[in-house]
Amino acid sequence: MTARASDKGPDDELHVYVIAGEPSGDVVGGLLIEALREAGLSRLRVSGVGGPEMEAAGLRSLFVYDELAIMGIFEVLPSVPRLLRRMRLVANDIDRLKPDIILTIDSPGFVFGVIRRLRSRDCPRVHYVAPTIWAWRRGRVRKFRRHFDHLLALFPFEPPMFTAAGLAATFVGHPVAEGYVDAGNGAAFRSRHGISPEAMVLCVLPGSRRAEVSRLMPIARGTLDRVLRDHPDVEIVIPAAANVRALTKAAVVEWPWPVTVVEGADERYDAFAAADLALATSGTVTLELSWAGVPTLVMYKVPWLTGEIARRMIQVRFASIVNIVANREVLPEFLQSQCRPELISKSLSALISDPAKRGRIGDEVQHISRQMEPGGEKPSARAARAVLDIVAAVGKR
User: What strands lie across the sheet with 150-153, from one edge to the other?
Assistant: First the structure.
């Protein structure tokens, strides 16, 4: 165990071990690291596993994090030996470094494996991004209570579920409320990429995992084949996640229309500001688009057996968080057997032809998404304050 509060002075180092296994968690982790620095810490040491956003904030990742971004029961099976090795590697690294606090972000399957393999349980363990127990099995709360001391939740309706089961939880707000998502410059984006101010821009976001991109890019192309016959002037923009950038670019090489593929956070949010409409994979990006006021069609598809198992376990009617919060389909969803070009293209063409409806949807989803804002303080700052309070409570500082 590291030195207790009475043994440390104001200039002592705080050592945080952070684990994130996919791009959305990497963004959360990067914001939190920056917020910890801004909280007045004179010395902050960050270890763990993350991606480019966390590395830009000062993390030196133990290994390339994108190999953890695997989704689907049967997609995971071939990778189990490698994932088990990575779990042991991270657990051994934590035992060796003895950080002041362990902070895991999303990726519950992987982080559970790490926590179970720790030899020492001396420092507090905090999980950031609550598991969607309201969509799956509420019995999972007990599992989290066994492995973690505190939960940082993105949505205001989550903490009561966990505190009722005996796990301390704090609502910190969703990262979309940081203010970067709707700070893009659409006019500059159009000028930079030679897109007319009058042109209709359609953002296509095929996912942040290799399996998602491989499965959904053909569906996106089939949809565009149909849509662009009647709307040939639509400009296609694809903001690609860093870990699937090469795969995305390779997929569009043979597309018969011009496609603008961009990368990086600034380009991504400028693209959102320029967009009139989006076709996006279900996930965090649909909430980001909603925050930016972009009407979005949501698509998602997993292998049939994975989907059938999930269908019997899921307890909510919708996939996107905006629809879940509204308890109705505000954003059109095309999931599993409905995720077909002939169905998506009809809805997409209808929205292209109806600017008034696009405007109504954009305004409504933006209003709904603002419920994720804690008010008065950035989510990352609230999360940083919670982390420091937890460390102080156990006498680490």
Answer: 44-49, 14-20, 101-105, 125-128, 150-153, 168-171
